[in-house]
Amino acid sequence: MCGISGYIGKEKEIKFLLDVLKRLEYRGYDSCGVAVEGENFYLKKIKGKIKELEGKVKSVNFYRGIAHTRWATHGKPTSFNAHPHFDCKREIFLVHNGIIENYMEIKKNLRKHHFNSQTDTEVIAHFLEELLERYKFKEAIFKMTEFLKGSYALCLFFKKDNHLVIIKKDSPLCVGKLKEGFIVASDLPAIIPLTDCVFILEDEEIGFLKKDEFELFDFKGRRKKINFRRMTLEEFKAEKENFPHYMLKEIFEQPKVLRNLLSFYFEEGRINLKDLNFSQKYLASLKRIFIVGCGTAFHAGLVGKYFLEKYCQLPVEIDVSSEARYRNIPLKKDDLVIAISQSGETADTLASVKEAKKRGAKILGICNVLGSRLTKEADGLIYTLAGPEIGVASTKAYTAQIFSLCLFSLYLAQLKKSQKESILNLTKKELEKIPEYIEKILEKEKEVKRIAKRFSKYGCFLFLGRGINYPSALEGALKLKEISYIPAEGYPAGEMKHGPIALIDEYRAVVCIALKDSLYKKILSNICEIKARKGKVLGIINEEDEEIKSLVDEKISLPSLKNFDLSPLLVAVPLQLFAYFVAKNLGCEIDQPRNLAKSVTVE
Ligand code: F6R
Hints:
The chain is built from 18 helices and 27 strands. It has about 600 residues and is of the alpha/beta class. α16 (about 470-485) runs parallel beside α18. Bound molecules: fructose -6-phosphate (F6R).
């Protein structure tokens, strides 16, 4: 979602700050702005992208400044609503990520103030202005945090004071040490190219920065120690290389990611989940599991549910985090909640985790971003090791999440002795082959591109799958709709006659996941029903399946697996490629689809 960059130090050109901000563009935004102080003060805000802002800003030098990309929540994407926001006297300038939940309440007591925007953020500037009537600057900052409710990463300055102030509560913020000065950002990849010396703020911390000084306090005003750590660019390398889009690059990275997982978590054929952190006794005694996640992570969780139920013989419940957090889930002490999140910063998932912890449940986080909030909240972790995922549409993180859930299920089944050793071993052996199979599927890139071209004229898509590939259908539909904006629905194929079949005619297309598993014959009947109604069918089929070829309009064939339970790992790939090429054909902005943000840090 929103992005923050800030700087204090030796004089720099304004472009420096905007370049840092650009490295956060992938998170999605609709407006942006910058406020810098040098010999003169300069503020510019626009609706649109950083490139346009760059074209409009004057070439000024500065020694203290803040910049922001905004993803609209309170108020439309306009230049007025863009950050930085300021007080009536135009002395306090601030950028903010998160949501101030009690902004209306605070605003009621600021009647004398003139507001320029509809945002919750602007209230902070005016509130601080009021506090400065009564308190000295630093005191006013501490006072302010007593009142603000919600989540906030703030970077601000007050013209009459010489600090750059950073405040973190429930939204990420980090600092990089430069030769002369400090750089601030809401995400590490933005600052890593400038320095390998970084500090990640904890919740409820306030930093006061000067060119050569960094003081850190907690919200109660107690001084804290600052331990900068070394982090290299290699750890965060996220170039597009020769790919036209990050999404395509990330689709192609999947074999490498899964090989990473194999080599990290497999030791001589045994699964060793190094950060799991739960005792074998606890895991073996588990009675049930609850899974939470949003969007793609939720779909990975659905695949995990099938796995855990079958291999570990455990009842598994799953819900999207936005529902789970408000449901009165009858969790018992020591139940296990698996929270899945690429970013580890998704507000709803974190809220469900907090809720579950209150009830005594233990949390297993399946997460991609080291040091993210989920990794701090969870009792145990499986890192998905996919590297930075920049494309807004999640691809490699999805297969890495499924893979991690498979590993966990196999490990748990072994502990619980809930499946035959021979079946577990066969599954492990086949898991090792998945990267190679995905490579074979990726060789079909051109074929998928051709098919996508043919199908991109359809105005509506159904994705059908059954069993463990029902989640694959949901994920296929999500990928297509989020980047091509074509309405697409995922359905369990068995539900077709209960409603969706009404949609079928010659203008609709149906993607059928029809692998030769135990439900194959049933999905074959669905395909006949669609064809009888003139619908166009793209089949995701097995290589050696001759029977189905004459029934479908187009097909993408996959290597055959001995264990179909692993097939979601393969099915995901052609569906990602298909969505990618349809969107490309339609000229859509693939890496940053409209209205979407990479990590949804607000509710
Ligand atoms: C879809 C997509 C989103 C995310 C969802 C959860 O391609 O990217 O649906 O999967 O917002 O995000 P994380 O995994 O960061 O919690």
